[in-house]
């Protein structure tokens, strides 16, 4: 029997968000695949050197080609076409849109469409409008030409059908994500114990406008808790915007940043924080929420549809548009007037699992290849 060749685009393996998805997908596929398939994993140069797999059915392919580039539409297209794959899995919306062979694509969210304000870009509005046009074009090609679409939640599935048509529903597969077991099994960072002796709350993520961290800062500044808020995320243009808001609120002593957190740092923060606060206006899944639950860290979160779908009975909700309600919920939780819901953690972690996600993804591969 001739092996089926399946390609996986892993060029973003070390990016935040989608990189966690790719790492865990490959980690479990490495354990799951059999001799009926051969995986071709496409990696940037540095990742090609460091990535390793146990399965003899995985072949690394160097593709040192930047996403969102002309080279992606030409050189990457040529490389994929020459490998004559039976099925290609694009793990991110940016892909060679003229790729002619069967493929599936993971659409993690539609935030660039649903929150297209221009504030999420450092580019001039003219260039941002071009970027948005390219995003819409790529996404339209992806949903129409793909053999299947993977989405991390029913909320994202519904958004795809709302934007691009109900007829897509039959080819959209919901594959829930989960806890990044590779990093969260690390020991917690001892070096942070002296730095963070006093009670604190945490936010984990980037500082793009849809994350709504500006509202969180203003709400926390209006709250009466004596605990600190630690904003854990990258140091960039968007974090500088948040620093300006902290200065406006005169909250420099109450709200601090922790940049470049290691996986050991994250374990420390989850296990020592009073709660994770996640005020986002939109998400595809919300990895930090399930990771907090894994570490028995209470969660205060916005009542957006995707969180209502995934975490309805396990987190404390607030209206993300109402700063004063957010502040009240923080105060009520801090005073013990709101008790975190009881959680059947074992069932939840079984439902939201990267291992389960990888098994379902492999089932989609096999179904399309009729294995």
From TrEMBL:
UniProt key word rRNA-binding: no
Lineage, highest ranks first: Bacteria, Candidatus Roizmaniibacteriota
Record-level GO BP terms: lipopolysaccharide biosynthetic process
MF annotations from Gene Ontology: glycosyltransferase activity
Gene3D superfamilies: Glycogen Phosphorylase B
Keywords: Transferase
Residue span, Glycosyl transferase family domain: 187-333
Name used for this protein in its record: Glycosyl transferase family 1 domain-containing protein
